[in-house]
Amino acid sequence: MSKKSMKKILVTGSVGQIGSELTMVLREKYGNDNVVACGRKTKPSYTLYNSGPFEFLDITDKDAVGKVIKKYDIDTIYNMAAILSAVGEEKPLVCWNVNINGLYNILELAREYELTRVFVPSSIAVFGPETPRINTPQETVLKPKTMYGVTKVAGEILGDYYFKRFGLDVRGVRYPGIISSETPPGGGTTDYAVEIFYEAIKNNKYTCFVKKDTTLPMMYMPDCIKGTIDLMNVDISKLRHHCDFNMASMSFSAEELSAEIKKHVTGFKCEFVPDFRQAIADSWPQSIDDSAARKEWGWNPSYNLSSMTEDMLEKLSNRHEKGNL
Ligand code: AKB
After folding, report:
1. DSSP designation for 100
2. What ranges do the domains of the chain cover?
3. CATH topology of domain 9-177+219-246
4. Which of 30, 72, 78, 148 is catalytic?
5. Contacts of 171 (CB under 8 A, 6+ apart)
6. In a designed cystine with 274, which of 77, 89, 134, 278 is the match (CB 3.0 to 4.6 A)?
7. How many CB atoms lie within 10 A of CB 95?
């Protein structure tokens, strides 16, 4: 199919950490006009706003989302709009509303308009303290202790329900903490693993909000984007799972991350002063078994702690030098 005659992709949450980079990669791949970006109220970057269609849109407003689907003849949705774990604990009702009622609108509209495919991200937040924390299996106990985790478990099950009940092709992965240099994350527990880089470059020191031995699964953005698009493009006959793929890349403690940064940033100092997010981090796995993703759709990450750190520091230093950080 030529780029011109292609049906259109809608990315909700396109101003967010993953959405902003995913949109640009999709525009590059499928053509700028074929990827409609939307966000609730945060001002999009110049590049995001000017490289293709952009709509201000709240996914909890079903009629408004329906109008955008119709206007652009949308065929595929990446539903990246979400309230993350830390903000979800401060505003549980908002978290429920966006992550569940918003998702329900997206799935219902996808069914009504007979869309081809929907991507629904899940998270390691679906796991809880009763889950094995090392090499967490694909099939295991899902008893999260955060509202965010509750909405992510429900989202996985809802997506699988729409597949089974209505034949809607819904796909999703359990993202670990995502590390990136373009758009900072907002309101997550794994945000320290991004903030530490910005602070190392700007101030040569960082106060980390989890303990130094806190170990969580993490992933670098290029792997995250590649995996997301690869899953969306694989032939459905290959998939035994749909909305709940474990997806791992690297795991390290906060202290190991700080030590890796110190190798490149002379004099960098990190102290560890845990806050309420420590309890959330302690309820999540340390490492993940992602063999189902590897087997069913060929997941294979490229970055490890050392290559990710080098790339992050290079990108952020360049931006800092240009006064753009
Ligand atoms: C968060 O920390 O809330 C997110 C996630 C792991 O889903 N980054």
Report:
1. I
2. 9-177+219-246, 179-218+250-284+302-321
3. Rossmann fold (3.40.50)
4. 148
5. 117, 118, 119, 120, 159, 231, 232, 239, 242, 243
6. 278
7. 23
Output the tens digit of pLDDT for each of the chain's 325 residues.
555 556 799 999 999 999 999 999 999 999 999 999 999 988 999 999 999 999 999 999 999 999 999 999 999 999 999 999 999 999 999 999 999 999 999 999 999 999 999 999 999 999 999 999 999 999 999 999 999 999 999 999 999 999 999 999 999 999 999 999 999 988 999 999 999 999 999 999 999 999 999 999 999 999 999 999 999 999 999 999 999 999 999 999 999 999 999 999 999 999 999 999 999 999 999 999 999 999 999 999 999 999 999 999 999 999 999 998 9
Mutate to test the pocket of ligand 1, among 87, 175, 249 (most ligand atoms within 8 A of CB): 175
Cα–Cα distance, 78 to 22 (Å, whole number): 9
CA 188: distance to chain centroid?
10
189 CA: nearest ligand 1 atom: 2
Distance between Cα 91 and ligand 1 center (Å): 15
Topology adopted by domain 179-218+250-284+302-321: UDP-galactose 4-epimerase; domain 1 (3.90.25)
Residue 148 bears catalytic tag: yes
